[in-house]
Amino acid sequence: MTAIVPFKNNDAKSRLSGIMNRREREEFALCMLRDVVNTLKESKVDEVLVMSTSLLDDDDFDILLNPEPLNEAVNEVLRKSERPLLIAMSDLALIRSWNVDEMISRKEDVVIAPGRRGGTNMLFLHEPSRFRSDYYGASFLDHIRIAEDRGLTLGVYDSFFASSDIDQEEDLVEVLIHNERESASFLRSMGVSLCFENGDVGVIRR
Amino acid sequence: MTAIVPFKNNDAKSRLSGIMNRREREEFALCMLRDVVNTLKESKVDEVLVMSTSLLDDDDFDILLNPEPLNEAVNEVLRKSERPLLIAMSDLALIRSWNVDEMISRKEDVVIAPGRRGGTNMLFLHEPSRFRSDYYGASFLDHIRIAEDRGLTLGVYDSFFASSDIDQEEDLVEVLIHNERESASFLRSMGVSLCFENGDVGVIRR
């Protein structure tokens, strides 16, 4: 089984601009990518490919270069895939290898791990060429519709860890609390820590 | 097995003030409470008690009246409980009965379903009187520490549905997409629907 991790490093994680400069954001995005790839490598997945829009300065990754936008790049892979395929976003800093194993043990044709705000954070396809991805907007609803239109059975994989894609400053709280790998260490090394105000939890950078 | 659902109806859900007036917020809070209680009743839980700061105008609930703040009220119950106990927040509009059954089948002394931003959304205690709750701030971390201090084994129940407490306007997206009960119908009846802007999903009220 192959897992594909789409990745774009150039000006990555722009919504974190309030707390990190561009180079830091790009480095943090690489940390999260490494965490996701290492988690996948510890799971029952056989092969992990990073589908990147540019070459990366890191020998640890097997790169599938594709300069196309996300949907076009993923759909090109789906069309050509003859075996089950997992697509996992590169900012799922909280996922554990058992999340991946649970996800790929599901029997439905299409299995979605929803992200917040209607997102699709992991997508497992038994027959990728029968599916088409549509990642913008409420992709969770779009993917359900596409599966129904094509007569494919659908499962939802319910996981807090898999639902937490890291985009905004408040999401860094989840990294500091629940990430057990490189991403949380990187944040701490930059002086980012939890802060508490009026019973709420946020992050602050010293 | 008993489940306790702490609830405060007076000026409920104040962070939704931008989209609902006070009466609507209190009614929405009651909708979510009913969804949570009905979900618990469909699970393997034997008894569901709503621990409320005031009497409620609804005969469907078994009320445990307690005007104390959350921690004091919960800790009073914990001290007196001689059987396993589940504490579930009243705004977990997404939980399914199988979430509850999975949670209460766990063997660790203390099982936490984390909420976002360090919250504790469900808490399952095999021996409640050995534990003490501390619900403010990063309660997930505090509850881990309390379990460790008391020599209790700890489990984390990983669920997107259980992690989604509904507090802010953006959380209504989750209700409209994933709630299958009364809360989503209530929002729709008020003219609240999903809206899409720059690939982002939010809510709008007509």
Overview of this protein structure:
Chain A has 206 residues and is α/β, with parallel strands linked by helices. Chain A contains 7 helices and 9 strands, in the order βαββαβαββαβαααββ. In chain A, the strands form 2 sheets. Chain A has a 7-stranded mixed sheet with strand order 3-2-1-4-6-5-7, sandwiched between helices. The first copy, chain A, has a two-stranded antiparallel ribbon with strand order 8-9. In chain A, strand 1 (2-7), helix 1 (22-42) and strand 2 form a beta-alpha-beta unit. In chain A, helix 1 packs antiparallel against helix 7. The mean pLDDT of chain A is 96. At the A-B interface, helix 5, helix 6 and strand 9 of A face helix 5, helix 6 and strand 9 of B.
Secondary-structure map:
Two copies of one chain form a homodimer.
Chain A (H helix, E strand, L loop, with lengths): L1 E6 L14 H21 L4 E6 L10 E3 L4 H11 L4 E4 L8 H8 L5 E5 L5 E6 L13 H11 L4 E3 L3 H4 L8 H7 L3 H8 L2 E6 L2 E6 L1
Parallel strand pairs in A: 1-2, 1-4, 2-3, 5-7
Antiparallel strand pairs in A: 4-6, 5-6, 8-9
